[in-house]
Structures are given as C-alpha cells and as structure tokens.
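Entry 12.
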Amino acid sequence: MESVFDLTKPVAIGCDHAGFEYKEAIKKWLCSNGCIVQDFGTYDATSVDYPDFAHPTASFVESGQAAFGILLCGSANGVAITANKHQHIRAGLCWQNDVAVLVRKHNDANIICLPARFVALPLAIEMLETFMHTAFEGGRHATRVNKISC
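Predicted 3D structure (tokens):
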C-alpha cells in the first residue's frame, strides 16, 4: 500500500468501548493492506475510560515508534483532546473525507480520530485511507504548525 507515512513502522491504534468494533474492523483492513498494527486497546466492548488508551497510543506515535496513529471513541472528541495534550501530537478529528484531507495537508496531523457513533464504517476506512495518502503541504502551513506547541 502506498502511503505518505513510513509503513515499515507499525500503525498505533487505540479506542474506548464505543470504538472497539470499528477498531477491530480497521485493524483487519490495515493488516490486509500489508500494515503492521500495534493495538493499545481496549480489547472488548466493556465500558472503559478513553484516556487509558489514548495516552499510550499518542506516546507511541510521539516517540517515533509508529508510522502514525488512529484513535476512536463515540464522538472522537475525548480521544482527540487527550492525544493533543502530548507535545508532538497533532490529532485531527475527522467526520468527512474533506476533513481528512485538510488535517494532513494543513495541520500535518499524525493521529486521525474517528467518531464511531457518527460515521459509517466504510466512511471511517475511506477517511483513514485518505489520511494515509495525503501529504503535508508545508509552506505557510508549516509556519502555523510550528506555532502550535506551548
């Protein structure tokens, strides 16, 4: 699979109970496309706290061990907020394909956050594929991205 990311590294993925079903389907899709997946849980649909899975996923991406990350929860807001607490993470919440393009082109996002309760699984996979194939534009956007960290 062609990607703008280094797919010799694993793709980090994590979710809460609301994202569990999508996470399992996305893992299967990634593996069928030749990707290595590092799964940070959760591992079933039992109610859990999303930060317990968003932090390890974000840390793995931030450390450079992952090509990029994927986080899922009901709205994707909780996992996005949590992941963006990490200094070198730019987690983008996507609900339509055009947003997946822009979080890569304009924000150089390194984690895609998907709202499992608000998008159909085929759209979630389409956004993921778009995210994986869209390069950061740099230029004026690099200047802005470089101003994000505190």
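Annotation: DSSP finds six helices and five strands in the chain. The first helix runs from residue 20 to 32.
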